[in-house]
Amino acid sequence: MNRLFDSFISSIRDVTGREFGIADYTGAILSCTDLKAFEGVDRAIDGFIDVEDLWLVENGATYYKVVIHERPEYIIFMDDDSEQAEKYLELASLSVYNIKLYYEEKYDKNSFIKQIILDNILPGDITIRAKELRIAARALRVAMIIRLEKDQEIYSHEIIQNLFPDRLRDFVVIIDDQSMALIKELNGDENVRRIDQIAKNIIDTLNTESMLKAKIGIGGPVESISEIGRSFKEAQTALLVGGIFESGKYINNYNSLGLGRLIYQLPETLCKLFLDEVFTKGAYESLDNETILTIQKFFENNLNVSETSRLLYVHRNTLVYRLDKIQKITGLDLRNFDDAIIFKVSMLVKKYLDKGERVL
Q1: CATH top-level class for 2-106?
Q2: Measured between alpha carbons, how far is 355 from 136 in angstroms, rounded to an integer?
């Protein structure tokens, strides 16, 4: 891209007769017609980055921030502090914007991957563009969506990129202010089995380095670059389903969603009909929090009365009394395997109907 900028700023100098330069948002100068014309340019740019203003006039030069995708990306500057310089820089910013978009479309691998996962490229063009960018069309890959908790304003993609520095095989794509996608190339079955551990390492690193909390959805592995969009959508589903049925989990794998995935795919009307069939009106709602906790612990301990009573710190007879009360209210005896299955599925369906709309 620097060669594109070199040609661009030379044209600006030829037209305006003034020296011109461009820096990225780390302060690194990418190209400049004559650095000697700008007194203290490095110091000026470093100070300019830390303020919200778009304009800076200092030592006879004018600096302007170029905003792309709603965030500052570049700083352009000219050795002129007149109002005319501001007009030149505003016009020049449009060219910088177009150069950036052209480069992303033509040469940037991450932008190409983003086009695939967001369905912004024709399927027939994917293999051709992959060849042009020297990306393997056939490789085992998996999509992971990393979603930060709300109100955590930090660009964490650099942390993830440092974890996976091989930019020919692994791609980190920013989706929005809170989400990014990692397209991870896998080395056979061993890495497929370890994908949850890879996700755990990401969460641990974000928390250790920046005190960031995140949740990760993992799609299924795919073998063709044209299929990574499907893996990405599966990762989205994993986050949604996990948010409904496993809100306490930080990692949700599409291939391990169990009953939650099945229920999530059912029409809402069918779910309501099922609950109406299982419970009389108001029966489930009449169960208090203590009773619901008792039911959950009973299921967690494989319907074992003795073990459940021990973990709940209640007498065995007290637990039996509670189970009898549940049977009286709902008509289901949780000590009976078939009734326990019906109740377990009913709890998941109720949770889906109560939480699904809010999560989505």
Answers
A1: alpha beta
A2: 41
